[in-house]
Each structure stands twice: as C-alpha cells, then as structure tokens.
C-alpha cells in the first residue's frame, strides 16, 4: 500500500504571530523553548482594562443594568494585583463611565464581545478573538479593538495588522474598523492591513524552517532576554556606548522632510527615554526630544518628570519648556494649521504644563503647516494633493487602486473625469469620512460642488445630499 505523508497542522495565535513579526528570536524563546516571563505592570493593567470592558459589554448585551456600584466592584476585582493610589482608582472608574457613555451613544446593538475565531489554510491555523463587534446607529457593522493606552501610544503597524487578521478571519461586511483607547477615551479609525493570507503563509513557512534571527525594535532595551540576545551582545561588543551611539544616530535621523524616517527616529528616542536602564541615556534622550520640539513627545516627557534620576527629571522639565516655546507660533495660527503628513487638522491638548497643539490623528506637531484656510477634497482629479496659496486640494479617490482616503476637508468637489466609476468612488469616500468619529466638522456642514458635467446617477446624488448643500459651480 502506498504511504501517504501527512503534514502536521501548524497552529499559531495572533499574539504569537505579532511576536514573531516583532522579533523571531523572542518568539523562539517564548513559544518554542517555553520560557516563562513575568507580566509587567503595563501588561497587568491592559488585562484589567480588557476584563472590565468585556464584562460591561456582556451586561449590555444581556440588557442588564451597569450601575456605579457594579463598576466599583468590577474595578476593585480587576485591579487587585496592581498597586494604585486612591486618585488613580477614581480616575479608572471615571474612564469606565466614559466608555459606558461612548458605547451607548455609538452602538445600536452589541453583536459580540470577545468573539473567538480561527483561520485554517493549507496546513496552518491562526486563532484569536476580537474585542467587540457592534452595529452602529446607521445599521452598519463595526469591528472595535481596545487599547489600554492613549492614542499617542498606538503602534500603527500592530493595530493595522491585528484588524487585518480579524477582517480576514471573520469575512463579514464591516462598515468601519476602530481602535478605542481607554486612557483618553477616544475612537480611532484604522485601515486594516491587506494581503493577510500571504503574510500568514510566509510566517508559517519561516517558522517551519526554524528561522529565528533577532530583530531590532523599540522593545530591545527593556527585553528580558537581553543577556542572551545575539543582536544586543553583538552591538555591545562593538563598544560600551552602544545605547548612546544609537541614540545619537536616531537624533541625526530627525529629518522632517523624510517623514517616515523622522517618525521612526522619534519612536527610538522616546523608547530610550522610557526604557533605558542608563540615567545618562534617558537624560540625553529627553534633551534630544526638547531640541526636536515635537509635541508627540509630551506624554513620555511628562512621565519622565517622575523618573528616579534627578538629571532625567531636570532634562524632562527643560524639554517641556522648549516644546512650549515651539508651540507659540502654532497656537497663534491654529485656525489655519493642517498636518502635511496625514492631511488632518490639529487638536488641542490641555495638561498641567500648558496647552499644546498636535495633529489629531498622528499626534505630531512637527508636520503642522500654517496658512491653509480651506481644504478642498476632490473626486475626479488624478492629482494626489497640491496647494494654491491658502487653499489645499486633496484627491479623495484613487481610481487605479479603488481606495478612498480620509482628510479634514471643508468642501467636496466632484469633477468631470472621463471613465471614473462615480458610484463606487462617491460611496467609498462617504463611508470613509462618515466612519471618522473624531472629525470636528460633521458631514452635513461640508458643501458639495459639482464642476463640469460628471456622470452622477440618482443613487450617488442621494449620497451626496447627506453632505451639506449640493450645487454646481
């Protein structure tokens, strides 16, 4: 009888997948060798937040009351292993109440709370669970992931990957993909990663081949496996000042004209301020952040005001003062600011140290440009974005990739553009703008101007009338 060779099914959770993509060496030690790593305070806090929100959502699903007494009892149980001051506990309760208000206002129905899923494909299986699926007030499904930090702490790649995997696994028609950040009680619109199937196949094959090289990332300085990591040890053998030299390189990489490189360099510097065991490195990182003058560093600098090292605390205070000076011109021009990186308008942050202005989405102040009094979104023009004096023009639809973009527009133009599929474009742009729940200007206040003779049907015109006034011009 002919032998039949069967290939063992490769199983991986989303957490394991994300660990491998961050650092294959860490994945090997945790999941191949089974090293036991104690949870950090941040991890315990994140678990507590997820537990509280899960229980609140399930009570709402069952139609049960969520009283103040219940929230007190719930928080006391969830935070039992975390040291927290009375003021901190009261703040935690306030954030739970804020979430309760937010979800009641946003969801007409909670469809599921922590829904498990699995993807089976050609010999491998990935498992996980979603935090929340809701039906919004317009009847559309939205997939929500909870993060225990504030919006400035979100790592875009991680959350885009996470929601991309969830979308691929659930295979449902979602109207929106959102992250809810517990610390600042804000909703964030997320564009999930694409080509998830190809990524999963690649990771599964690399793990089968036992490819576990170390990979540098912003967690290296805090990693419990530093002493046995070939990357860390190799860098330290090249010179005792490895951290200090890498920090200097990051500072030299702060070129605002290379926006992606700048963002990565800022994350490295903030990582050293948060995670370095060397107080001199932390103090130098704080100084560099002050020189950069970018308010995206405000949270980490405020944390450093409580650093055990006096030199670090002094450097952090000095850096915050430099941020305040860099902010003066921005606050004066607030009404005409827009982020040159993401094309969103700013928001104001109020802290005990003062008021700061940052992009409402990316959190940076370095990319804010002034002098823009009107932002015009265009459906029908092939240009990406361009500026004419005090007007900024943004293409809202890419006909080739069939993708809509989001931006803080003041007016929407629909122009005559040959073979464009206006039905697809107008609906996609509308959905993209509608799903941005943090937008300051509602769609009903954004007028639509039809320029030329675009071929628009009745259904598309109905969608455009959900904006402000529709007129020809």
From TrEMBL:
PD-(D/E)XK endonuclease-like domain mapped to chain residues: 11-229
Q: Which Gene3D superfamilies would you find in this protein's record?
A: 3.90.320.10, Leucine-rich Repeat Variant
Q: What is this protein called?
A: PD-(D/E)XK endonuclease-like domain-containing protein
Pfam families on file: HEAT_2 (PF13646), PDDEXK_1 (PF12705)
């Amino acid at each position: 009888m002919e032998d039949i060779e069967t290939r063992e099914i490769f199983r991986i959770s989303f957490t394991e997948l994300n660990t491998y993509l961050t650092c294959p060496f860490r994945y090997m030690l945790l999941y191949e060798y089974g090293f036991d790593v104690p949870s950090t305070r941040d991890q315990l806090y994140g678990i507590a937040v997820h537990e509280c929100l899960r229980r609140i959502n399930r009570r709402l699903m069952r139609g049960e009351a969520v009283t103040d007494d219940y929230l007190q009892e719930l928080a006391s149980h969830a935070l039992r292993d975390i040291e927290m001051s009375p003021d901190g506990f009261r703040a935690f309760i306030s954030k739970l109440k804020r979430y309760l208000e937010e979800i009641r206002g946003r969801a007409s129905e909670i469809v599921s709370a922590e829904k498990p899923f699995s993807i089976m494909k050609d010999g491998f299986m990935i498992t996980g669970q979603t935090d929340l699926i809701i039906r919004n007030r317009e009847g559309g499904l939205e997939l929500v992931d909870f993060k225990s930090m504030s919006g400035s702490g979100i790592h875009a790649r991680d959350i885009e990957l996470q929601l991309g995997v969830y979308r691929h696994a659930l295979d449902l028609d979602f109207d929106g993909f959102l992250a809810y950040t517990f610390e600042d009680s804000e909703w964030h619109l997320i564009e999930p990663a694409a080509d998830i199937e190809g990524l999963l196949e690649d990771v599964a094959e690399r793990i089968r081949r036992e490819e576990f090289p170390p990979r540098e990332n912003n967690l290296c300085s805090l990693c419990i496996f530093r002493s046995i990591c070939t990357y860390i040890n190799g860098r330290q053998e090249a010179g005792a000042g490895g951290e200090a030299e890498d920090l200097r390189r990051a500072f030299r990489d702060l070129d605002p004209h290379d926006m992606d490189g700048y963002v990565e360099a800022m994350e490295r510097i903030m990582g050293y301020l948060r995670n370095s065991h060397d107080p001199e490195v932390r103090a130098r990182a704080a100084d560099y952040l002050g020189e950069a003058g970018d308010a995206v560093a405000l949270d980490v600098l405020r944390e450093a005001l409580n650093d055990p090292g006096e030199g670090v605390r002094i450097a952090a205070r000095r850096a915050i003062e430099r941020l305040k000076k860099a902010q003066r011109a921005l606050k004066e021009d607030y009404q005409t600011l827009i982020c040159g990186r993401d094309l969103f308008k700013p928001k104001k942050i109020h802290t005990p140290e003062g008021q700061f202005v940052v992009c409402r989405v990316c959190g940076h102040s370095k990319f804010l440009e002034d002098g823009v009094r009107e932002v015009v979104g265009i459906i029908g023009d092939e240009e990406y974005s361009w500026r004419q004096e005090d007007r900024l023009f943004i293409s809202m639809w890419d006909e080739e990739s069939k993708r809509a973009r989001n931006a803080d527009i003041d007016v929407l133009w629909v122009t005559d553009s040959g073979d464009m599929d206006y039905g697809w474009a107008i609906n996609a742009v509308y959905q993209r703008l509608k799903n941005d729940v943090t937008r300051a200007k509602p769609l009903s206040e954004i007028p639509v101007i039809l320029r030329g003779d675009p071929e628009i049907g009745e259904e598309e015109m109905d969608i455009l009338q959900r904006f402000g006034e529709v007129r020809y011009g």
